[in-house]
């Protein structure tokens, strides 16, 4: 086996672009993103990609979020704490390392039993959050 070294051509634009030919940032620091209060006691930082929204959530103990549905598939991952979640009428207490997979248009709600840290992943992108928070 022979190894071939290819010289770097500094005249080539190595910037990654999305489907609309806009510059794309492949590396992000979530805690450097602006923090918003989505609902009372739900503090979020979001990263929007072309097809996915990832939301880093810090929840105050005892805080509920209302029953709702949306056309997005959602996965809620519990990083810290205990979070009671109801999905499609079934209620479970999720702990660190557990998650809920919520299909599109299914009613769901939740409540932080303790202070919690969550990661919510949505597909497709939450355009409503992009419009509301930027």
Task: Give a quick summary of the entry.
By secondary structure, the chain is mainly beta.
Report on the architecture of this protein.
The chain has one helix at residues 127-133; strands at 36-39, 42-48, 53-59, 64-68, 73-80, 82-87, 90-95, 99-102, 108-112, 116-123. By secondary structure, it is mainly beta. The strands form two sheets. The protein has a six-stranded antiparallel β-sheet with strand order 1-2-3-10-5-8, with no helix packed on it. The protein has a four-stranded antiparallel β-sheet with strand order 4-9-6-7, with no helix packed on it. The protein has a single domain, classed as Sandwich (Jelly Rolls), CATH 2.60.120. The protein starts with 35 loop residues before the first strand and ends with a helix.
Number of helix segments?
1
Structural class: mainly beta
Unreliable stretches covering 5 or more consecutive residues = none
Q: Compute the average pLDDT.
A: 89
Biggest sheet features: 6 strands, antiparallel
Looking at the structure, the CATH topology is Jelly Rolls
CATH superfamily: Jelly Rolls
Characteristics of this structure?
45% strand, mainly beta, four-stranded antiparallel sheet, six-stranded antiparallel sheet, globular, Jelly Rolls, 134 residues
Topology:
Blueprint: E1 36-39, E2 42-48, E3 53-59, E4 64-68, E5 73-80, E6 82-87, E7 90-95, E8 99-102, E9 108-112, E10 116-123, H1 127-133
Antiparallel strand pairs: 1-2, 2-3, 3-10, 4-9, 5-8, 5-10, 6-7, 6-9
